[in-house]
Design brief:
Bound molecules: glycyl-adenosine-5'-phosphate
Largest sheet: 9 strands, mixed
Number of helices: 16
Shape: globular
Helix content: 25-40%
Distance between the termini: 31 Å
Radius of gyration: 25 Å
Oligomer: single chain
Strand content: 25-35%
Strand order of the largest sheet: 3-10-11-19-16-15-14-12-13
């Protein structure tokens, strides 16, 4: 059995060597929190985003593209200027700066997110916690550190302050008035954005997990707060079983399996919110094919919730290389916090007229970090067998879907293989490889998670059949070239 540390090392080595991801500006030593997607990582990311759009952008949901630089007023209104902070402490001996809550969590193995400055200082002092770098106990008092990157617009000396946006969410709020008008003034209205977010994390670590520049896929659903306990598809989803870790079950660490209907009654979660919980559940389990036992929704307590949320449950996936279940995604009930804030700051009415009344819509937010999910796929689908390492990605997430090999590079086999490759590449993501032994080519294809490989051999020239190999079982069958399409569809990891 590979230890979690070795597994992380192996995944990282494959990721860097094969082109999934690697540190940005490596030739200058790299910078913590910045990664580049290589060609394979980018292919997975593109596929993830396409699946996300297909699953979440239902009726009256639209995608926009706003900006990553937004004026200071936006963040005054949203509350980020005041409250988007992490607790910072500094070692007086070596001047290493780090997060006080992480120091407590790492040293004492207790949750410290959401604690007050007073509590953090008290715990650090009482437990005589030390600098994780040099071991000194001489730490500064904890203070809040704002995680937004500021910048000035215009020429040197300009005082016009803006920020790199720490979430894509603010763009749909700023676009709401226009989009509501343009989409025939109907609620619920979903406005999505997939784009970059920036956070000046104090101590980014864990590879893709805590980045300073990352991609979010977020959907803001605007609705009438009087309709929160309704959803037109409720009857279709009410018996769907959710895996939940409510605050009340934290000590027992038992995941509760509740139908949406029971969660509505017992946990008082509104139907509109539960609809999106179910939607996220099916995305992870059915679309991405994450094993059920590696998934649950984790409820955040009042102290832990983001400052804008009334209900806040995160999706946790089991990532053994990072020490257990970790947050990859969130579902937030942001109320009218943001639109209300923008109405006040801009002095513009953002009220709508709907259901015979005027009001500011409330918002439920589906918030995905794309990079965290990409990392999760690599870790969850990675397997090490006696003779090979592979990613057992579902075909629809695989960066390469079909590899095509001529058995040898002579006797007209490459020409025939090229002919097959061109046909297949027009419909699927195919890769042509003619270097090295066939066994090595299979291993290379396995290592990047390619679900199918086709080999063109001497028989192909005679009877137009090829060998089709399945990645997971390594079983090989003979298939006539015109029947390949049907075979891809019929196999376990169908395309
Ligand atoms: N708009 C709401 C929002 O941004 P969040 O919980 O701060 O909420 C949402 O972030 C998601 O963005 C997280 O679940 C995570 O997947 C991703 N994320 C947040 N901070 C990140 C970071 N520093 N590096 C990578 N992903 C991050």
């Amino acid at each position: 059995m590979t230890s979690p540390q070795n597994k992380l090392k192996e995944i990282t080595q494959i990721a860097e060597r094969r082109g999934f991801f690697f540190p940005t500006a490596e030739i200058y030593g790299g910078k913590a929190g910045f990664y580049t997607y290589g060609h394979l990582g980018k292919a997975i990311k593109n596929k993830f985003e396409a699946l996300w759009r297909k699953h979440f952008l239902e009726e009256n949901c639209y995608e926009i593209e706003g900006n990553t630089i937004l004026p200071e007023d936006v963040f005054k209104a949203s509350g980020h200027l005041k409250s988007f902070t992490d607790p910072l402490t500094e070692c007086k001996a070596c001047h290493f700066r780090f997060r006080a809550d992480q120091l407590i969590e790492d040293s004492l193995k207790i949750k410290a997110e959401g604690l007050s400055i007073e509590d953090l200082n008290k715990i650090i002092k009482e437990n005589k916690l030390k600098c994780p770098k040099c071991g000194s106990q001489n730490l500064t008092e904890v203070k809040w550190f704002n995680m937004m990157f500021p910048l000035t617009l215009g020429a040197v000396g300009s005082k016009e302050i803006a920020y790199l946006s720490p979430e894509t969410a603010q763009n749909p709020y700023l676009a709401f008035e226009r989009e509501f008008e343009a989409t025939r003034k109907k609620l619920p209205l979903g406005i999505a954005m997939i784009g970059k977010a920036y956070r000046n994390e104090i101590s980014p670590r864990q590879l893709f997990f805590r980045l300073r520049e990352f991609t979010q896929a977020e959907l803001q659903v605007f609705f009438d707060p009087d309709d929160i306990n309704k959803h037109e598809k409720w009857n279709l989803i009410k018996s769907y079983k959710l895996r939940l870790m409510p605050v009340s079950e934290r000590k027992s660490k038992k995941v509760k399996e509740l139908s949406c209907e029971d969660a509505n009654k017992k946990l008082k979660l509104p139907k509109m919110y539960l609809y999106y919980m179910q939607k996220m559940h099916t995305f992870f389990l059915e679309v991405l094919q994450i094993p059920r036992e590696k998934f649950y929704f984790y409820e955040l307590s009042e102290e832990e919730r983001a400052f804008y949320n009334k209900f806040h449950w995160d999706v946790y996936l089991e990532l053994e290389t990072l020490g257990g279940f970790k947050e990859v995604t969130g579902l937030h009930y942001r109320t009218d916090h943001d639109l209300g804030g923008h109405a006040k700051q801009s002095k513009k009415s953002l009220e709508v007229f709907w259901n015979d009344k005027k009001f500011i819509p409330h918002v439920i937010e589906v918030s995905f970090g794309v990079d965290r999910n990409v990392f999760a796929f690599l870790e969850i689908f990675y397997e090490k067998e006696k003779e090979r390492t592979l990613f057992k990605f579902p075909a629809k997430l695989s960066p390469v879907e079909i590899s095509i090999f001529p058995l040898v590079s002579k006797d007209k086999l490459p020409e025939k293989a090229q002919e097959v490759y061109k046909k297949i590449n027009a419909r699927y993501v195919a890769f042509y490889d003619d270097s090295g032994s066939i066994g090595r080519r299979y291993r290379r294809a396995d290592e990047i998670g390619c679900p199918f490989a086709i080999t063109i051999d001497y028989e192909t020239l005679k009877d137009n059949t090829v060998t089709l190999r399945d990645r997971d079982s390594m079983k090989q069958i003979r298939v006539k070239i015109p029947e390949l399409d049907n075979k891809f569809k019929a196999m376990e990891h169908s395309l």
